[in-house]
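Students often ask why we bother encoding 3D structure as a string. The short answer is that it lets us treat folding as translation between two languages. Here is a chain of 255 residues written in the first language.
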Amino acid sequence: MAPPAPEHVRFGLPFNDILPLWHDGADITWHRPADAVDFASILGLGYVQTEPGPTATPNGWQELVETATLLPAAPDSDDGPVLQLRAATPAGRRAINDPGDGAPIRLSPALPAQEAMGVASGLDHTRFAVHIGRLMLRAARDGAILLFTLRAPRDPEAHHLLSVPSEVDARQVMHFHLGTLLDMDDGAWAHAKRADNMTLLDLDIPYQSLLSKSGQGGQGLELERLTDMARPVVECLLRPGFPFALGFSVILHER
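And here it is in the second language, the structure alphabet:
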């Protein structure tokens, strides 16, 4: 019997130590890492190999999505699949320990949807917001557009949920321009504007405002300030509710 064929997959946003995998076609599966791997510290931060995404972009820009190879579990085995995660650059090797042909990360078998969604425990909002905040910092640094999409199981099309063009100026003030087709008019969006069927919200965040002095005289990010910055994005992403199959990508200037 021939061994199962490797699959090409892209990633959804990790949450509660759960990794959504978007398979080619219309399938989504949810997995936990079998080893102590925090996907929120790896994905979306520029460490992982990318390929051009499907979104139509303005001239001179290109959408990039992070991808990997999934090696299916052996037949008649209780093991889960193995994710071959490849580093984007030599510097990224240290972030994901890529030996050259990809870092092998063992995953659990696909989780039942109810378990994956954490019906009993709910979403860890703080950890999720911290990850979103780190994505925003990277996007501002690179002058990128963050694009968040929502995909339902058995639906091959990802639907626009939120776009976030971003930049940082000479004074280290980060500017985020949030735009969504959802009607957002409460919470962090109470002062949003409506134009062309879009809800729009601008954020101006001085980078220095996120920093706090550590006990050793250095500086680190202040957790509460980082999650406050990410709150409008998080509120929008959570508005549709579960099933939780959020995708993300970055749109960058072509080089």
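Translate back mentally: The chain has a mean pLDDT of 90. Keep this in mind for the problem set.
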